[in-house]
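Teaching assistant here, posting this on the class forum so everyone can see the example we discussed in section. The complex has two components, and the goal was to see what a joint structure prediction looks like when all of them are supplied at once.
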Amino acid sequence: MIASLSLILLCQLAGEAIVRGLGAPVPAPVIGLALLLALLLARDQLSVLEFGPLRNDGVEEAAGGLLRHMSLMFVPAGVGVVQQLDLIADRGVAITLVLAASVVITLLATVATFLASAWLIARLRGAR
Amino acid sequence: MKADPFALWVYLSQTPLLWLTMTLLVYALVDAVSQATGRNALANPVLHSIWIVGVFLWLTGTSYTTYFSGAQFVHFLLGPATVALAVPLYENREVIVASILPMIAALMVGCVTAIVSVVLLAEAAGLPKTVVLSLAPKSVTAGVAMGISESLGGDPSLAAVAVIITGIMGAIAVTPLMNALGIRDFRARGFAVGLASHGLGTARAFQVDALAGAFAGIAMSLNALVTSLLVPVAATLLLR
């Protein structure tokens, strides 16, 4: 458990070092994600990597534990709304409506593109 | 000597322990209610935790800085949880590779839609420019959105609030919306909610279906990348 969490933190730390070092406009945890994914894929090819957290689903279980409780982690930032009460009183309704409309439009555009292109690709494959 | 309850409160309310305990306790209670309702979308645990904690801070006159001194330990875990998304990606790698083209198409269209729709709607609603710049990156996870809006001259704390509101609304809307449209492809449903509503959408997707959760996780991480590149471009093109 501790070794698995250390591995996850180590990936994030390496991501942080890469982002700082290169001045890249990419969030460090996203680089950490790519590193952990590369490690897991490499493990399937190289048996030397099968040790500690990369053995017996160690890191898999620790990651599952974190992901099951991801909602909780948004609560502290969300409570930050108490710092914006003046703006909310003034413009809250407009902001909420704008965000609601935008999120529904985004959901529809994304799901429609996904389904349409999946359908198109299946048809092209079938036609060949 | 009998302790003065007010002095005890003054002491405890300055300790991180009280606010960390409160965050976990409120969430645990609200989450139990959400479970009892069969994960009804309206019983969103984040939404109800936020207003309950917020009202409590307001009633006790506690500053957000004091609250955050305790809550930061939970907030910190957002980073490791993002790294942990590598595991569902790895476990679903075959399905993901098989649908790589629809994913790329949906990512591009969805990311542009998310940014352009909010900027145009906010301009039409007559919101001030700093607010528009703070809302623009609202579909990516909090830490990333705060960085983007700050570099453009927006307000990072407002950006964080816009991110959370967007996340909660997407998580509440997605299941009834997709069911009403008769969309049963859980890859597409998960991808859409992860793109539009980042980690909160991903958390919701994992509650509904494991495959949807994995696709939501990919959409969320890819969108964080693309949005950080596109929002500065959109801001220069759409805002005068």
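For the discussion questions: The first helix of chain A runs from residue 2 to 22. Chain A touches chain B through 70 residues (CB under 8 Å). Think about how each of these relates to the inputs above.
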